[in-house]
Structures are given as C-alpha cells and as structure tokens.
Amino acid sequence: MIRLHHVPGSRSMRVLWLLEELGLEYELKTWSLTDGSLRSPEFRAMSPAGRIPALEIDGRSIFESGAIVEYLAERHPGAGLAPPVGEASRADYLEWVHFAETQANILQNLNFHHIFLRPVEARSVAMTKLDTKRLEVTMKALEAHLEGRDWLLGVFSAADCMLGFNLDAMFRFVRSEGFPNIAAYRARVEARPAYARAVAAGGASMYAQDFYEVSDG
Ligand SMILES: N[C@@H](CCC(=O)N[C@@H](CS)C(=O)NCC(=O)O)C(=O)O
Question: Is the Cβ atom of 12 under 6 angstroms away from ligand 1?
Fold first, then answer.
C-alpha cells in the first residue's frame, strides 16, 4: 500500500505526479494547511515538522518531497527517471532536485507575502521585493539551463517532477517576458498525460490571481 499525504497545490504534487509517471497504485489522504491538523500527533508521527508531503510506503513513512522523489525513482530503476550512482549526469540530477527546493522556499515566502500572512499590515514590502528578486535570479539560471534542452537533464527525469511543480507559481510573481525557455518547458510539462492525471487527482492551483504585483505599501 502506498498512501500520499497531500494538500492540493502543495509540494505533494511533485510526488503525486511521479507516482503517476511510474504507474503506481496509491491512496491519497488530503489535509488542510489551515485547520491545525498538520500539527496533530497523528500527522507529526509521519512528518515531524508538520509539513506536507509524507508518503507511507514499504512499512514506513517518508517526509521531505526531495527525499521521497529520490526514493521512488531509485525504487523503480527500470523507469529510468534517475541516473544511477556513479553516472556523470547523477550530479546534474541531484543539483536540480535540490535547486527545485531552493526555489520553492522563495515561492513559499512569496505566498506568505501576497496571500497568507494576516493581518495584511504584517506583510513587508521590502521582503516581498527581495524575494521577488531572489526568485528572478533562480528563473534566469533555469532559463539559461533550458536553452537547447527539453528537460532538465535533456531527457525527462524525476528532477522535472521536483522543479515542474514550481512552474505554476513562478509567473504569478515574475512576468513571463524574457523567459521563453521556461514557458516552453511549462507547456511540455502540462502536455504530459501523467501530469494531467496528477492535477485531476490532486486538485489544481491554490492561486486566485494570475499575477501578484508588489505593492509599494
Ligand atoms: N522541504 C520540505 C518543505 C515542506 C513544506 O514546507 N510543505 C508545505 C506545503 S507546500 C507545508 O506543509 N506547509 C505547512 C506549514 O508550513 O505549516 C519538502 O520539500 O517536503
């Protein structure tokens, strides 16, 4: 039995998408980010920081989306979604798996700045501008890396499941002009049948606006 602990539009989408790419059977248990249930002993037994996702698999639970994605890809070597240990492209793969989380942390900050933090007066324009700049730096790096590549490693890999999750958020905080390679990459992600199945099963984006301007306060 594989059970994914999930919140729509959250990092559990990475795992859900990879489960679909691998053609595995799974159950979804959906939680809320706002009702306090992630702080419950039941959930913290699976994910000690009270964060989504957690995956029940092989008689235990695993937390941290990157760890889960790496574990699943390695558990199914025949799918070819992770370069084997010792192969040259393994370092590239690990870099992009972890880069995705660096970028997701900035996106998470921007979600707080623009959407979640209450009261609104508690939001900081300076921090919002700083995080928007920091996001732009990661997007420029990604844009340059995708030049001449369809996927992060050239061929599709589990690193794309890690980074592909971020795509829904990126252009809500930084305008898409100047990022044609990222826009084309996003179209390739959305055209994958497994991605479409994951979105259908897991619920769509949490964003109510296409773009969030940085207000001058
Ligand atoms: N590095 C962790 C981050 C997990 C994380 O922050 N998840 C968010 C949802 S995308 C969450 O559970 N937030 C609840 C909270 O911060 O209380 C991972 O990749 O799994």
Answer: no
CATH homologous superfamily for 3-79? Glutaredoxin (3.40.30.10)
14 touches ligand 1 (CB under 6 Å): no
Q: Report the chain's mean pLDDT, rounded to a whole number.
A: 97
Atom of ligand 1 nearest to the CA of 68: 20
Residue nearest to atom 2 of ligand 1 (CA): 64
For residue 11, the ligand 1 atom closest to its alpha carbon is 10
User: From 3.40.50.300, 3.40.50.1240, 1.10.645.10, 1.20.1050.10, which CATH number describes the 89-192 domain?
Assistant: 1.20.1050.10
Residue showing tokens 């730096």: 137
Which of 165, 186, 10, 33 is closest to 103 using CA atoms?
Answer: 165
pLDDT in tens, 20-44: 999 999 999 999 999 999 999 999 9
Pairs from 118-127 (Cβ < 8 Å, separation ≥ 24): 125/214, 125/215, 125/216, 125/217
For 155-197, the pLDDT digits (tens) are 999 999 999 999 999 999 999 999 999 999 999 999 999 999 9
From ligand 1's centre to the CA of 208, what distance in Å? 20
